[in-house]
Amino acid sequence: MSKQKPAAQEPKRQNRVRSAGEMVGDIAGLSFKRFGFVQGAIVSRWTEIVGERYARVSTPESIRFPAGRKVGGTLTLLVEGAHAPLLQHLAPTITERVNRFFGYQAVAKIAFRRGAAAKSRPRPARPEPVPVPTELGEGLRAIADPGLRACLESLASSLAASKGPPLVERGPILPNPINRPE
Predict the structure, then answer these.
(1) Residue among 119, 66, 57, 67 at smallest CA distance from 94
(2) Running along the chain, 182 residues long, what does each successive block of 10 average in pLDDT?
(3) d(CA 20, CA 26)
(4) How many C-beta atoms surround the C-beta of residue 156 within 10 A?
(5) How many whole angstroms separate alpha carbon 134 and alpha carbon 113?
(6) Which of 29, 75, 84, 140 is such that its CA lies 20 to 30 A from the CA of 50?
(7) Burial of 40 from C-beta contacts in 10 A (0-12 / 13-18 / 19+)
(8) Would the pTM of this model clear 0.70, i.e. be above it?
């Protein structure tokens, strides 16, 4: 008598609206696994792992593991031109940092491939803060915590720069999309 594996269970329904940020990890995770990444965070956090200097000239391309195992894999890096010899000398350090990121010995060796590293997009400039009105500033000076005071000053300056509360246009009332008794 053979045991059958239980059927793949569907994820539990949450009966709530989910933000796009919650779903991106699930969708991107499938894409990353297809192209050899067990964990897609290594791509998005590559700068934290190897540092800004080396992240500018290298990009992780894939991690290939031996059949049936999730340890001792080969990390393939795309490296720009003449930076490959330098990164080859740093391979033990990069291996250690990647394994520390994963929390186990995921990578045993690194393969280098010549190519253009992915360029990170520059961060948008933050708008300059507007001075806090004097009537709000007196109350804020009494706050001892500098972080909280800075946050509240930023909020007060944003409110002072606005043209009043946001206006919300009322549209037609739509039927309840979830079949619940009202």
Answers:
(1) 57
(2) 58 72 62 56 85 89 85 90 88 93 90 81 66 66 79 78 71 60 54
(3) 10
(4) 20
(5) 59
(6) 29
(7) middle
(8) no
